[in-house]
Design goal:
Blueprint lengths: L4 E7 L32 E5 L14 E3 L19 E5 L3 E5 L5 E5 L5 E5 L30 E8 L5 E4 L6 H8 L17 E6 L5 E6 L14 H4 L8 E6 L6 H15 L8 E5 L5 H16 L4 E3 L8 H13 L4 H4 L16 E6 L2 E5 L1 H8 L6 H14 L1 H8 L6 E4 L2 E4 L3
Parallel strand pairs: 1-3, 2-4, 9-11, 9-12, 12-13, 13-14, 16-17
Antiparallel strand pairs: 1-8, 2-7, 5-6, 5-8, 10-11, 15-16, 17-18
Length: about 425
């Protein structure tokens, strides 16, 4: 089954906790701090796999959790770093943040990687906090918290040439005779229920990839028919073969309707170069209407070709025209693919103080909340270090200015602390 959209939840690994420990060995007095560091949590990495062509593997499996780093041990033993979690996607996958709608990455090249969630850093053991004035520190760090995101994958097939037109125009037949693709072909509309790809050999050195897009009807850009689901696959093509049905009552109206739906979905689609061809020229009705239709399209700036996909008449000429146009068309990545905008993380020194109740206060800030999660509040040394950090950042002064009193509750992230003067 062809699946071109999926939503998944990803979470990186939390860093391992650093250890607060003192060396104990017979005949060794005052062995000193030897708590090891925690290991780093695993990253979540999106990787392009050329062997994939659909997102169907994410239809049921929608949660991906990276491994946490291992905690540090005694004798300065560091915890093991966690393995990174690799999530494979097919070429042409755009990755969006569900919450913000932001484009996080546009994955087109085989082997391309994107770190989507960074694993937490391992906490430091008390060996790092020993000084000449504090030779037995009861200070350590818990592992850095993980990152998590809800992602939306959108697959846009990567093809050089897209074949478009109304239902039953003969697009699948044309693809089958130009390439080795075996799409479903039948004498009724909407035979093609999903895009099909095929590789056409132009000469000994040149091959091109063609995509057969399901037929577009009026209202496709708004969800009518099948077009709304598959119009995105035309966005990556550089040249379009617009196939007209020679047995249609009004091919010119079909031509205008299809181009109108392209423009409504994405204005750039209507600007793509088009090779227009009237199909089914093995039928008398098509032959009869060809001269008038050719004259009308010429007045609009298009040259109309006459082909018959079923009889394989002039289809190679149609392919050569498209390939020549392809050679004169700029590479898509230079002009049309949106560039991801990466925003810097929140400033760790930024914070805000809010009243949460008559005797309750909440401190909001990415940096201080992360530090709270990495603090061993059960160790007096770690608690004093956290208090000094609040003083340095100006949080203590801000709370006093806001009106905090002795005995009030100060909430930082998931932690509730009692204020004492």
């Amino acid at each position: 089954m062809f699946i071109d959209q999926a939503e998944i939840f990803v979470r990186s690994g939390t860093g391992g906790n650093g250890m607060v420990h003192f060396h104990r060995e017979k005949f060794v007095s005052r062995g000193g701090p030897d708590g090891g560091d925690g290991g780093n949590g695993g990253d979540v990495i999106i990787e392009v796999r050329a062997t994939m062509n659909t997102l169907s593997s994410y239809r049921h499996n929608m949660r991906f959790l990276a491994e946490d780093g291992k905690g540090g041990g005694p004798n300065n033993m560091s915890g093991r770093n966690a393995e990174d979690l690799i999530i494979p996607v097919p070429p042409g996958t755009a990755i969006f943040d569900v919450l913000t709608g932001e484009l996080l990455g546009d994955m087109t090249e085989s082997g391309q990687r994107l770190v989507i969630c960074k694993g937490g850093r391992g906490g430091r053991g008390n060996q790092h906090f020993a000084t000449s004035r504090n030779q037995a520190p009861r200070i350590g760090e818990k592992g850095e918290p993980c990152e998590e995101k809800n992602l939306r994958f959108e697959l846009k097939l990567i093809a050089d040439i897209g074949i478009i037109g109304v239902p039953n125009a003969g697009k699948s037949t044309l693809l089958s005779v130009l390439t080795n693709a075996k799409p479903k072909i039948a004498p009724y509309p909407f035979t093609t229920l999903e895009p099909n790809l095929g590789v056409a050999k132009v000469d000994e050195e040149t091959t091109v990839v063609l995509a057969d897009i399901p037929g577009l009807i009026e209202g496709a850009s708004q969800g009518a028919g099948l077009g709304h689901d598959f119009l995105r696959h035309i966005q990556r093509t550089r040249v379009l073969i617009h196939l007209l049905d020679g047995l249609s009552s009004d091919p010119l109206a079909d031509f205008s309707q299809t181009n109108g739906e392209l423009a409504l979905f994405d204005p750039n689609l209507s600007k793509k170069p088009q090779i227009v061809a009237l199909n089914k020229m093995d039928q008398a009705e098509a032959v009869e209407m060809f001269p008038k239709l050719k004259k009308e399209l010429k007045s609009r700036g298009y040259e109309l070709l006459a082909v018959s996909a079923m009889a394989r008449t002039d289809i190679r000429d149609l392919l050569y025209r498209a390939v020549n146009q392809l050679a004169n068309t700029p590479v898509l990545a230079d002009t049309e693919v949106p560039v991801p905008v990466y925003r810097p993380k929140d400033d760790p020194k930024q914070f805000a103080v809010e009243r949460a109740g008559s005797n309750e206060w909440r401190v909001i800030g990415a940096g201080i909340e992360r530090t709270a999660r990495m603090t061993y509040f059960e160790h007096a040394g770690s608690l004093r270090r956290f208090q000094r950090l609040m003083e340095v950042l100006g949080i203590e002064a801000a709370l006093r200015e806001a009106g905090v009193r002795d005995g009030d509750t100060v909430m930082i992230g998931d932690y509730e602390l009692e204020w004492q003067d």
